[in-house]
Structure formats: C-alpha cells, structure tokens
C-alpha cells in the first residue's frame, strides 16, 4: 500500500491548478523531471506549491469543513421552504443525518446527495500523499540544493514540517489514531499509532523548526496562504489543546505551553483583529487577521463551490447572480441556538453577520461570508483554517485553566471589544471558562470550529452545550470520529478501521 501511495504521491504532487494566484503557478511534470528536478530553488518552490494544491484539492473535494466541523454539532438544519428548489431540498436534507451523528446514512451512495461527495472525507490516501510529499521535500532540501541560502534551506524544511504536522492534525481530528511516519519513500506497512502520541511528535518537530518561518513574507501574496510563524504557533496551540482534552494526566503542561505560545503571538504585533465590518474580507484570506488559508476563488478555474464553509448558510444577495437562483440558504442555524449564544442587545455580530438570524428557515443568511461576488455569483471565498482570533481565544482558554484569570479576561475582551459586546469582568456571574467557550461559539460560528471544540472539551457529551450530545460510552467508543474507507486495509495487514462505525 505504501509503494502505491508513493507512486500516486509523485503523480499527484505534479498536478497543478491553473489560473490561480502566482504562488500556485507551477511548472509541468516534463519541466521538473529528469536531471533538472531538485537542482534549483525554483524546483523546491514548485514542489512546495503543489503540496498546498494537493491539500486544496482534498478540502475542495466535498463540503469538507462544514461537514466535519459544523454540521455534526446538531445546530444546523436543512432549509425546506416551499419555494426552494426541490432537487436541492432533496439533496440537502441529508444535513439532518449529520445533526444526529448518523454518518452511515450520509455515506450511502446512489442517493440525492451523492454528488456532494461526502465519501471523500473517509478516504485518507490523499492526506498520506501530502505527508509523503512533505517527507520527500524535507529530505531533498536537507541534502542540499545548489545555490540555496542557509536561511531559505531552513525555511523550506520548516514549511515541509508545517505541512506534514497540519495534515496529521487534521487527520487526528477526523479519524483518531493514524499511521505516523516521517521518512522519505516509506514503503513498509505499519499500523495506527495513538493520536496523542502522534500529536506530541508533531508538537516536538514543529516547535523545533517554527522559528525558521517568517512572521510575514516580503511578497504579500504569500501572507496567510503559506506557512508562517503565526500559523505554526496557532497549529501548536491547537495540537496542545486537543491533547489536553485526551491526555488528562499532562493537561497542565499542554495549557502552560499554549499560554506561552499565545503570549508570543500576541506580543509579536505581527497580526491583529480587523474591524467587524471587514470580517467578510477575512473569509477571502490575506488580511492582517488571517494566519493560514487555502485560496482559490471561483474566478480562478472551476473549484467546487460546495467546498466553502459559508456556501450552505448564505442566500441572495450574499450569493447568486439573481434572487431566482439564490433566494434561500441551503441550511440555517436553529433559532434556539442563536438565542442561546448571542445576547440580542449587546453583540454587534448579530446585526453585522446575519440576515433573519432566528427565522428557522431558508431566509436565514450569513453576511459574515458575503465577500466579493465573482462572475459566477459566488463570493471569492478562501477555506480559512486559522485566524488570529483563534490564537487569542486559545490563549484565554489556557490561561483560565491555569488560574491566570486576568490574562484570560484580557484576551477574551480583545474579541468582545471588537464585537461591540459588553466586556467580561472578573467576578461575573458567568463562569470564566464557560464564557470563553461560548465566545468561541459566537466568534467562529459557521467556520468549522464548533464540533471540534465540543469534542476536545468533551462538552459534546453535555446537552447543555449541544443539541446533539453523545453518551459517554459513545464518545469513548469513538463516535466523534469519521468512518475510514475500507481502501485503507489494502495490502496492509497491520491496519484497522474505526470499530464504532463497523
């Protein structure tokens, strides 16, 4: 299986996306093959760009972010308005299955929603192609590229580590235990490793190399779309906080590491929160708040519009050239959820980000994802993975867990002040830790954070925090994971699938 992955990896790595911004422009395989390849820095740059292109292809193969990080929280329902396109209603009704964690129904082929390609989420081969490519890149650059400076050599190696660790992190959140390796041209079959161990290895290697990444690139087109020090720090914070939820014996160490990382990124002044009115531009990527995103607007080729997190939650005029083809959103948040997380009198996000927020039907829409409409009638979205507000609130969460209440409140209030919300005060009737979690629900609504936050804090088992609670037994059995496609077993006697879904 690993030899099969290597062959596919090499083929996929050289598959470029055309017409995109210049940092995704790559040479063809014929120009990169033979003696020329790995002989210049331009070769390394092209290989690096194609690793991002592979990840983009995976995340755009389905409604990936909304399906994995939002729909499973149980707070989103499909629109079934009488004036809504009947074919779309039929296909989108599957969102109800996400809401009750019925992924087996989601994955049934031959149904109206098959074209949404949810099965792609269960296949991890493409992720391993990226990991294999990252391992090869690190090895080749480490051996030396003629004419490349020491600074650039370290930066490309750090970028390979970031891409590898990011990919492992996303796989862990989807599947739990995964097969872990970092050697180039790996060919021996191996089994799955405990995911806490995998993330600890990723934490160690990324911590050792992240200072070789820049805070900002000289070429502004790279900022927010290529690995940088802020993105590496936020990834480290996320990996530490994920492990804190599952490795209880060492959780204080994870919190302490996260707090220090958060302090570093905040005091760097390299990033900032944009004014609330500009938040839709953050969804397009490349702003001073963006840390890492995949950018491929619909004017740059023909990406799958369903892949963008906001697509299911917006209606005309936030998407669609005319009211006729975008009158209703495909889904909406439960009004009970909106009322629970937002104080209607003290949070500017409600008016700034929503149209008919408590409608409980398809006239609901999220201006948060409005963006600049392209010629096809869809906003020029990016797939945003990390933004600065995430680092700020993770620092707040870690500080609160460490009893550093004033620091936690200061970080919480950075986000609340931007939102025009009443500032939190120590001694408030609301528990500080709960207030920080609720702030994450408000701030990142629709962006794909919700389910993962519920899982890592185990609030997914508490009906006070979700309309779709798992029992503790279900949680421990792995009900929070995704099924793994049976192709993972091919020619690998050591591989197993997620038993909960068998």
TrEMBL record:
Domain RagB/SusD: start-end pairs: 356-501
Annotated Gene3D superfamilies: 1.25.40.390
Protein name: RagB/SusD family nutrient uptake outer membrane protein
Membrane-crossing segments per the record: none
Record keywords: Cell outer membrane, Membrane, Signal
Domain of life: Bacteria
Any one cellular-component term (Gene Ontology): cell outer membrane
Protein family per UniProt: Belongs to the SusD family.
Residue ranges annotated for the SusD-like N-terminal domain, each copy included: 82-235
Localization per record: Cell outer membrane
